[in-house]
Model the fold of this input.
Amino acid sequence: MSEHLHTALRLATHGVPALPLRKGKVPFGNCPACAKNGCGGRPNMKTPGPCTCPHPCHGWAAATIDLRAINSWARAWREAVAVAYHPGGAGLTVVDLDNPAAIAWAGRTLPSTQTVSTTRGEHWIYRGAVRSVNAVRDGVDIKSTMAYARWLGPGTGTITALPDVVRALAVNEPSTVRPAPQAIAVPALAGGGECRHRTPAYLDRGIAMAEQRITEASSAVHATVYRTFLAVLSTHGRCGCLTDAHITRLFTAAQAKGESPRHCTDAWTNARTRLGL
Done:
């Protein structure tokens, strides 16, 4: 058994979702369909692509505590250069400090907690999960939900509760919600009949259900967003019913779960392409 596989199994038995990293410190595609990015995921595999695998096989969403799944990634473990984990999946938040100034700020501002040395700085690990946000300050990233962090050992100190100052940094990031794509232009229905989707109750119920599906996702959020967008477009995408307001509601729900505007746009575009819209 490789050292990295042993580490991943040990993490999983303690409830910490783990995954292997390849050269470049990025995830593998852990099934044949995704091994060479055949699913259309991002080239660096840092985020789950719009694949239809039974279970997420790459990106942060691949991190798991399923020992059988971890053992099944034989090829990945042979080539792995490091182990990563999903902090949010373990109810943790990593404050990633990348330079001496960032470490000094943490020393002045944050309560003591478990600290791990990194190549460029330190990871300060707290109990509690929030959304992941990069560059909340110079040299400071927050890694928790929908992100992974390299496992660099247990470090020193005792994990303490996530302080309000970190929660505020994650929540108070300036809004980056993009304007929703333009409503889909499609031909009128044959015969000039009125589209049933224009019944307000029918359409509103569908959008509300889609928002709820995204909001209630506890794992594989990126895949859930894509599949929800696909379901909405398959029902409403060919009749011209969707407006900017409807699409904005979906994008807003996705971003509230940690999806970036770019990921929302990519998921929407991929869903339209798959349906031929």
